[in-house]
Design brief:
Length: 342
């Protein structure tokens, strides 16, 4: 038998149901084994993986998320295989306190914006009071183009300008409302940081418009956003700095555009970077907490974080199958309106 590399991954359980686990062979993409496991204990994983070993496959590498019970189970069932850990899960775990702080900042900022300009951004001018289109068995009749009145007055230029200005104000209100709906997807998509930066862009746009025309609504929006952002400015600085650390770590781990490196070389580069940012982490207690979590998580993952650089073809993450199931869930929701399987 040739070399076999396998990926073991557990998918997000549906509302209290047992978790679905999948073992996929990387060379062919075939699913070797799948099943719902009631717990993540070593004995459970050994029972789940043992039939694969009994097939006589020469498993040389295994990629997992580093679940506590799975690590000793892989060592027991595939003692000769190298065990790699998913780098995306490593970054997610390293970003946990940052994501929690970002969520708290997002809630605070959103509430501040609503307190300052909530009444104003909720005001929406209706485009029309009528139903625009009706279809089905009883569609609306299609009316012809109204005849042009030769005596129709020429549009008032001032009225046109006022309408354009009103449209700009409405668009800015909609943009602010949209920004307040941002949701996070750690480790890189942090809604609080994104909200601060997008609102800063709106504030810059408002300043440019006010310099040409100081509409009272624009002035109110600008002042309200300034007050709201000032409430979280210090916290935003710490979160932005920690988020940049994670981005730098992710770039350091990424082999694209870099010379081929061994696992030991990448490990050395990562720890050298963590030593480099240590003085920066002393700037605040919050940064110290973020830094300690990153260092602690890196130490926990070191045994398998760099395996992919030494095993040709072994991916850095096992999220591919999770993405497939997320797409299935989205299609299910679109076609049936049902969220999840029952």
């Amino acid at each position: 038998m040739g070399r076999q590399d396998v990926v073991v991954d557990g998918l997000m359980p549906e509302g209290g149901e047992p978790q679905l686990w999948v073992v996929r062979e990387l060379q062919t993409g075939l699913t070797l084994r799948s099943g719902w496991l009631g717990q993540e204990a070593k004995e459970t994983f050994v029972h789940f993986l043992r039939p694969i070993a009994e097939l006589g496959l020469r498993v040389t590498a295994v990629l997992t998320d580093k679940q506590r019970g799975l690590v000793p189970a892989v060592a027991a069932v595939f003692p000769q295989a190298k065990h790699g850990f998913c780098q995306i899960h490593y970054l997610k775990n390293a970003a946990k306190p940052l994501a929690q702080a970002d969520q708290a900042m997002k809630i605070t900022l959103r509430q501040q914006v609503r307190d300052e300009v909530g009444l104003l951004i909720r005001q929406e001018q209706a485009e029309t009071a009528e139903v625009l289109t009706v279809t089905g068995l009883l569609p609306s009749p299609v009316s012809g183009e109204p005849a042009q009145n030769q005596d129709e007055a020429v549009p008032d230029p001032l009225q046109t300008v006022r309408q354009e200005r009103d449209a700009i104000v409405q668009d800015l209100k909609r943009r602010i409302r949209y920004v307040l709906t941002f949701k996070a997807r750690p480790p890189f998509c942090l809604a609080g940081i994104e909200m601060v930066e997008r609102l800063a862009e709106v504030e810059s746009c408002l300043a440019t418009l006010i310099a040409h025309y100081a509409d009272p609504q624009l002035v109110t929006l600008s002042r309200g956003l300034q007050v709201a952002r000032q409430c979280i400015q210090t916290e935003y600085g710490d979160l932005r700095r920690a988020a940049d650390w994670l981005r730098s770590i992710a770039d350091l781990l990424d082999p694209e555009g870099k010379l081929a490196r061994s696992g030991d070389e990448v490990r050395h580069e990562l720890w050298a970077y963590l030593d480099k940012i240590r003085p920066e982490s002393q700037l605040s207690s919050k940064l110290q907490s973020f830094y300690r979590t990153i260092v602690h998580t890196t130490a926990n993952y070191t045994a398998g974080l760099f395996t992919c650089y030494d095993v040709a073809g072994l991916p850095r993450t096992n999220n591919d199958r999770e993405s497939e199931f997320r797409d299935l869930t989205r299609r299910l929701l679109r076609t049936t309106g049902q969220k999840g399987l029952v």
